[in-house]
Amino acid sequence: MGAFLVKRLMFAVVTLFAVLTLVFIVVRIVPGDPALVILGDQADAQAIAALQKRLGIDRPLFEQYVSFLAGALRGDWGTSLVTGRPVLVEVMAVLPWTLELTAVSLVLGAVIGVPLGAWAAINRNRMPDYFTRILSLIGLSFPPFVSAILLLIGFALALRWFPVISSNRGTPWEWFQSIALPAVNLGLIMAAYITRVTRSAMLEVMQEDYVRTARAKGVPWRVIVWRHALRNALIPVVTIVGLYLSILIGNSVLTEIVFNRPGLGKLIIGALSQRDYMMLQGMMVIYTLIVVVVNMLTDIVYAVVDPRVKLA
Amino acid sequence: MSGSIHEASAAPVPRHRWLRTTIRAFNANKTSWLGLVVFVIVVLLAIFAPWISPHDPLEQDVFSKLKPPFDNYYLGTDYYGRDILSRLLYGAQISLVIGIASTVVALVIGSAIGIVAGWYGGRLDIIVMQTMDMLLAFPSLILGLILVAMLGPSVTNIIIAIAVTSIPSFARIARAPTIAIKEREFIDAGRSLGFSDTRLMLRHVLPNIFPEILVMGSLWLASAIRTEASLAFVGLGVKPPIPTWGGMIREGFENILDSYWLVLAPSIAILVVVFALNILGDGLRDAIDPKLKGER
């Protein structure tokens, strides 16, 4: 187990390093001089040179790369070109909002998706199966901002159950009101993915010899489904859900925009429209960190729950 | 070399058989036909938009701004007094062009990467696929957003950005069956006849894995159309006043409090197209590989 952890950690570090390099390249493929883009055509040469110096883009590329990597590791991600505050401070201010939304949505997705997928699998090619498959396909077809807008129209505008804009969260009720619609939006889409994965994992497990053996020796059907099949089927589900996290994070950007909820999504869209390169660079680092850490955790969880995984 | 020369003749899949396989795949899951029919209708509507649109999509009727549906304009008018139905029909063109082009680009490049990695194996395979996995792990929508913002929102750049985000998936899909097929006898036979690697990959591996890639293509087309709309929604779509579905939702969202129908029509349009493609691809995949049933 120890060797596995070390190996997995090494892989995470290499991945992080590679993606940081990619981020560095992506931010620099922008055609034209960022300083010129930020200041506009009217700027004089002196101002441009000053900004280039401040951005550090007057230095040789390799030097920029080294200082970028060193900065990323030390938590020095530069200062926002728009607000002038450190990028890390800005990111940390909204990170809890996004993490909270993602976590609640993931739980919601699993609570809906896992039972639905299992239900579909044990009723393969019967009504519940068709019903669930159509339902999950509809869920997959919704662009997240479309479903968010429909929820907004339905529950905030027509039924008036929720405020259209809500960032008060002093009382538990206000907290619930601020997170309910965004979390339902992301959670339902996530549920669609999880339903499908659970269903196919269940179908696979139900064909295993140990399930047949259990049936042959007269284990009650309910026990077979819950203890033998579902628990084993959940193992691959965990890994795949870890991969889907990147979809969830992408979707959260659009959800935050529609519900006007603070978070990484609103921050990145703001940075994009204001051409805040330092902020963008920092945002990509934080997204990379989240993805790498989550993937590592899923792999470790996978190894812990499934003794069949080779720990080599 | 265990293969005999006779088996080499069975290697390339004959065209008529390929067509029959496709039709059988459609018949295996009738909902695929439904998806295909809906999609073809949308394609036809987009192609014939200039002839069937009741109005010019850019024409502004300043006296009928924000008109609700069924009042002279079938689906109402937007904030600038433009006919929503006409904009919807023209918007389909952008969605389909960007969706299809980016999927084709990703399919070609991704499959090439996957086949080459699977065929040669070894270090090359490891390095290439690790890179693909990293790209795959990064939130594709965010990667797309950043690429479009950096390159500038033109049709070509949006196509490039969406293609880049879906190349890794095609590489993965193409690689796995390539590894299985390269061990088959007919490949050995081809080798012993002195065929080059390129020829074997293009004429003997590709036709055999193409159905799987194509099914993936229909699912990714759905995803590409969704991504294009999402980009347009956050303001990184084709520049206004050119109508795009995502852009229409973006504009309509500003008037959502009093004119919700502005967002409703394009939302439903996106949903119908993406859903049609999803049931098309999903049904086909079941037919081609029953083991994968229901997985994404």
Kindly state the mean pLDDT of chain B as a whole number?
A: 81
Secondary-structure element order of chain B, as H and E? Answer: HHHHHHHHHHHH
What's the end-to-end separation of chain A, in Å?
A: 8 Å
Helix content of chain A: over 70%
What percent of the residues of chain B sit in helical stretches (DSSP H or I)?
over 70%
Shape descriptor of chain B reads elongated
- Flag low-confidence runs of chain A: none
Tell me the span between the first and last alpha carbons of chain B.
37 Å
* Average pLDDT level of chain A: 82
Binned strand content of chain A: under 5%
Tally of individual helices of chain B: 12
Percent of residues of chain B in beta strands?
Answer: under 5%
> Which parts of chain B are unreliable, with pLDDT below 50 for 5 consecutive residues or more?
1-11, 292-296
- Radius of gyration of chain B equals 22 Å
Reported for the largest beta sheet of chain A, the result is: none
- Pairing-aware structural class of the strands and helices of chain A? mainly alpha
Structure notes:
The complex is a heterodimer of chains A (312) and B (296). Chain A has 312 residues and is mainly α. Chain A is built from twelve helices and no strands. The longest helix of chain A is centred in the C-terminal third of the chain and has 38 residues. Chain A is globular, with a radius of gyration of 24 Å. Chain A starts with a helix and ends in a 7-residue tail after the last helix. The mean pLDDT of chain A is 82. Chain B is an all-alpha fold and 296 residues long. Chain B has twelve helices and no strands. Chain B starts with a helix and ends in an 8-residue tail after the last helix.
Keywords:
heterodimer; A: 312 residues; mainly alpha; 12 helices; globular; B: 296 residues; 0% strand; disordered C terminus
Please render the helix and strand layout as text.
The complex is a heterodimer of chains A (312) and B (296).
Chain A: H1 2-28, H2 34-39, H3 45-55, H4 61-74, H5 87-122, H6 127-141, H7 144-158, H8 172-206, H9 209-216, H10 221-258, H11 264-273, H12 277-305
Chain B: H1 5-8, H2 15-28, H3 31-47, H4 49-52, H5 84-120, H6 122-137, H7 140-151, H8 155-181, H9 185-192, H10 197-233, H11 245-253, H12 261-288
